[in-house]
């Protein structure tokens, strides 16, 4: 009896068991078995049945590969009365290392695929790379530098095909100050083949000695292909490839400061100079009248923040009134240029010939590997007496008598008059000093404001920002991506004048609005299409939509803020 019940139970189990377990197979197929480290492969996992809401577990793949994308599709087909359906997952994989890499078995509801081996080779030398449609190169200006010395990292992306999008890793180096110098776009012909080149330069300043390791940077580029046949693909899916490009890792030897260096501040620079300017001719010094002296320290290969304050020796008979020092950074073909400007007013307190001592600063010449000194020579000045005439008390015409010698004031001048004269003299001295200070402040204000300015600086800035805004709106109405990009960047420079160099990604971050960031990203995609002299209009960029977003943002009075720490996005060549 028990045996019959067991047989009946097993029969029921087999009858109700899902059909896909008994007849369904799960297969995995890689489109390539040999790839370079910078290339990707496609792994297709196919289930001969309709899958539920879940999918296979692909976690094991992440040991050797990065999963760049995972697209699922379900198909149904009926041929000659025979119906079949299947579910397919297509994964784009990028290898993490070189060697024989395992694609492990993938499981789904008790079904398993077969494991596979993929051979991953080192990328070919640059000479061979140049035969490819798209490749990337990275280089440094020096492989051996001193601590805090500038190293220029250059990354170049070459493409002879249209790109739909490109994304890159963020450059993040430990104990290293990094500043993006430039984004250049140009064309280059290699072996007769034209390429659009996107070149990005970074200035790196290692803060500690040892080895500066610049890791491999990864760029993911989506190429732009043809649109599939609308009859076979009613959604018009655009074909193309997803490429994973990697730069080579670079090590830079960072040496400690030279032991022979005797300067107070370590300043490794390729060129350093001291210059000065005067508001008036130094020969026109007068007692109590200030003259402004502007001293500028310029250093190639250093930031303005690295430049130390100048030491100004005291001079008897001259008082200094320093203004707050200003620092700034400029970029050039050779990298960063740091500038420190110190402004001070000199007020002579006595007349006569005086000497302003020389000003010097010691620095390390990175070209000759030697210590050098930049100097402002001493300056001789002649201080004329003040133009303010002080009346002197008249002496008595008759010699004092014996009675006057007993303590009385001289004839013609009473004790009260003498005290009054002393008070008047002191008051005049205070007034002179006050007027001298006001005169100096007025001169400083006039130097900072253009002589033809009729309105305040604030009003001028608002007017400039308004004009840039109207110009941007006009360009966006025309739906011209190239012109719109130029006008948007011009408006961003007026909207956030302290934020430095602008691009679309930077403006999107400053706006702090996700819709605007997406709109600017879409404009990037359209620019990429134009870089290949071909545009299909399949991007989501709309000038009119962007106008609506920016007007809504402007109505909220976006707060201006400084630089973003994120890297700027890359732009292709504008044609």
CATH class of the largest domain: Mainly Beta
Query: Globular, elongated, flat, extended or rod-shaped: what is the shape?
Result: elongated
Share of helix among residues? Answer: 10-25%
Query: What is the straight-line distance between the termini?
Result: 87 Å
Low-confidence stretches: 9-22, 390-413, 451-457, 558-575
Structural class given helices, strands, pairing?
alpha+beta
What is the C-alpha radius of gyration, as a whole number of Å?
38 Å
H/I helix tally: 10
Q: List how many beta strands DSSP finds.
A: 29
Number of domains: 4
CATH topology name of the largest domain:
Immunoglobulin-like
**From the coordinates shown, what is the CATH architecture of the largest domain?**
Sandwich
Major beta sheet summary: 5 strands, antiparallel
Note the beta-strand portion: 35-45%
Q: Average pLDDT value?
A: 78
